[in-house]
Design brief:
Elements lengths: L4 H8 L4 H16 L5 E3 L3 E3 L4 H17 L8 E3 L9 H4 L3 H16 L24 E2 L2 H11 L8 H10 L1 E3 L11 E7 L6 H15 L4 E4 L6 H15 L5 E2 L12 E10 L1 H10 L9 E4 L6 H11 L7 E6 L1 H9 L2 H8 L2 E4 L15 E4 L2 H6 L6 E4 L2 H10 L5
Parallel strand pairs: 2-3, 2-4, 6-7, 6-9, 7-8, 10-11, 10-13, 11-12, 13-14
Antiparallel strand pairs: 1-5
Length: 402
């Protein structure tokens, strides 16, 4: 591997043991994947933040690395934690869990990483430019950065993302290279695509069909930012897709070269969409929890839900997970009060996938997220997957209506 003089100094330990350890990780990964050199990164997003996933061993790992003097040198944000870092007590998280989660955040803070815990860093100030090399870890954020923005990142692991933040480098392979960003599948979308859940269903289906290949969608006429993040999140969860293109919509899709000449073609119709929704369900109609925000809800999503539940008393618990920045704006607009007066919560910093949700006694959950629809059943929950409107109605009535 070809290293610059500066990179070799990092590897030789001239900048301390913490930097050396980080560079050793970057170089080792580069050699495994056949990278010829490293590239400088504009920003980093670190996964592996919830204590539910890390445990005590994870805390020890982070504290040890921080104690060696590791400090980030590029803008870095964190993935969601397992609770709201400020309002955990009022929502009902156990103090024992909270203490451990805050230890995790403290260890990251020692490295210079602020507690910006979100899977939508592009809605919270971490916004790369087209063509930037970055090192992001959370699957939906990776998909959004690669596809919608046109930045370049592989899906980093927790340690490799931290290493990239400390060195400002990542290995130049995978989606950092032009040749790996070309789609090998064309997906003709004939289904009616309106709600964000429709894009979640498309992503859910695409991931299962293509696994980790790069798709090129045609036939989608309009897609909001929320629709695009829903599509990417679901396809990353069900199949590991880290990059997609949509004709005339996403950053690189205007270039015909982004679809290979020998591509395969598949079609997504209303039947396939309906099959996805119908495949995720259970016999009972009672709903305990309705959860939005996977990926983290935008201000517009929060506003839509708040307007529908304002003045009502919810029969099921309602959680909307989002970033601290969006929650703060929603609070200033009175949306947090509208949600809380109805009996729900806007929860910052957290994702239900990595939170101790079972400790609350929930069993039957309604979601409009294809990513939630993929992960939550595997955690032992009964899940209904449907439109935003159906989920809001379930929160109001406590029931899932056919």
């Amino acid at each position: 591997m070809n290293l610059t003089k500066e990179e070799q100094k990092m590897l030789d330990g001239e900048y301390g043991e913490g930097v050396q350890k980080a560079m050793e990780i970057i170089v080792a990964l580069g050699k495994i994947y056949g990278a010829e050199n490293l590239v400088e990164v504009a920003s980093v997003q670190v996964a592996g933040v919830s204590y539910k996933n890390l445990g005590d061993a994870g805390i020890e790992f982070l504290e040890e690395w921080a104690s060696k003097g590791a400090k980030v040198k590029v803008p870095t944000t964190l993935n969601p934690a397992g609770m709201d870092l400020d309002d955990w007590k009022s929502i009902g998280f156990a103090e024992e869990f909270a203490d451990k989660q805050l230890e995790v955040i403290k260890a990251f803070s020692k490295m210079g990483i602020p507690p910006t815990c979100t899977c939508t860093p592009y809605l919270a100030g971490n916004i790369p430019k087209f063509g930037d090399h970055i090192a992001w870890a959370e699957s939906s954020a990776v998909s959004f950065a690669n596809s919608v923005i046109g930045a370049r990142t592989n899906r980093e692991g927790g340690p490799s993302a931290i290493a990239a933040a400390v060195t400002g480098r990542t290995a130049n392979f995978g989606y950092h290279l032009d040749e790996n960003r070309v789609a090998t599948f064309k997906i003709i979308v004939e289904a009616d695509m309106k709600d964000t859940s429709d894009f979640g269903a498309l992503g859910y289906w695409t991931g299962k069909q293509l696994r980790n290949k790069v798709p090129f969608f045609v036939g989608i006429k309009h897609a909001t930012t929320d629709c695009l993040k829903s599509l990417g999140a679901a396809s990353a969860a069900s199949g590991g897709i880290a990059l997609y293109h949509i004709e005339n919509i996403t950053a690189e899709a205007r270039a015909k070269a982004m679809l290979s000449d020998d591509h395969e073609t598949v079609t997504f119709t209303d039947k396939e969409k309906r099959d996805v929704f119908e495949a995720i369900g259970f016999s009972e109609s009672e709903i305990d929890l309705v959860v939005f925000g996977c990926p983290h809800a935008s201000l517009e999503e929060v506003r839509t839900i708040a307007e529908r539940v304002k003045g009502k008393k919810l029969k099921a618990m309602l959680w909307i997970t989002t970033s601290k920045q969006v929650k703060s704006m929603a609070e200033r607009m009175g949306l947090v009060k509208d949600i809380e007066d109805a009996g729900g919560y806007i929860i910052a910093d957290m994702c239900a996938v990595v939170a101790p949700v079972k400790s609350f006694g929930f069993k039957n959950i309604a979601v409009n997220s294809g990513k939630y629809a993929w992960y939550l059943p595997n955690q032992g929950f009964n899940v209904r997957f449907g439109s935003t409107e159906k989920c809001i109605e379930a929160a109001i009535t406590g029931r899932w209506e056919p």
